[in-house]
Specification:
10 strands; D-Maltodextrin-Binding Protein, domain 2; elongated; alpha/beta
């Protein structure tokens, strides 16, 4: 019988004991998130979802008190930058966020996809087609900004993925860029058959928790401990 599982469990217990002693001396961690099912969702007044459960699992293992606040992505980012929150999740890494925050290891790995009606046959990954259709992505995200930087004909500013899907179904945009799991959640919610839309892969993205550099300066060992606990929480 292999001793590896037992050794791994003993190591985990040792980590938990050491992190709980240290974490008890600090105030509650204040994190912000947005409604983005299936990653984060508000259900009967409780904040749930795949990403939420993994974050909670890691922080509980550390013995770290925490608060999770539901807001918009733009407010979550702004208030993390200005000190109102200690971090936000989930979001990909980019240069703007790196100015004031440091990302954890990936919480979610999902595929960014182009979604369009079956009648749209062009390849949206070919920038030669950037002006041949009306493109959409969630406003103020790295996806939306990338489309603008790359010269795509971005015509709308949807505040969330549900609105983006509504615009696509109504014909207000021709092609939408969104995470596969997120868009398929809203498609199922609205009774949209998967075969109604054509999708083309864009790239796989890693979504993370972004902890403010101000917070991490006060807790130098926090991020490595969080990432260590996350390894054991990724199966949730």
């Amino acid at each position: 019988m292999s001793l590896a599982p037992l050794i791994r469990w003993i190591n985990l217990i040792c980590i938990l004991l050491s992190t709980q002693v240290n974490a008890a001396d600090f105030p509650a961690l204040r994190l912000a998130t947005q409604i983005l099912p299936p990653y984060q969702i508000l259900y009967n007044g409780d904040i749930k979802g795949l990403a939420v459960e993994r974050v909670k699992c890691s922080l509980n293992a550390m013995g770290n008190d925490y608060e999770i606040h539901m807001t918009t992505l733009s407010k979550a980012q702004l208030n993390t930058e200005t000190g109102g929150y200690d971090g936000f999740f989930v979001a990909s890494s980019n240069a703007a966020r790196a100015r004031y925050a440091t990302a954890s290891d990936p919480i979610i790995v999902d595929k960014l996809m182009w979604f369009m009606s079956q009648s749209i046959l062009l390849d949206p990954n070919d920038t030669k087609n950037a002006l041949k259709a009306r493109y959409g992505a969630k406003f103020s995200t790295s996806k939306w900004l990338k489309l603008k930087r790359d010269g795509y004909n971005v015509v709308k500013k949807p505040q969330n993925a549900a609105s983006l899907l509504d615009m696509l179904l109504a014909g207000d945009v021709d092609i939408a860029l969104e995470y596969k799991l997120v868009f398929e959640h809203y498609m199922k919610e609205r009774g949209v058959d998967k075969n109604q839309l054509r999708n083309v892969g864009f790239k796989e993205k890693q979504l993370k928790v972004h902890f403010s550099n101000r917070f991490l300066q006060s807790r130098p060992a926090f991020l490595s401990s969080f990432n260590e606990q996350l390894k054991y929480c990724m199966d949730l």
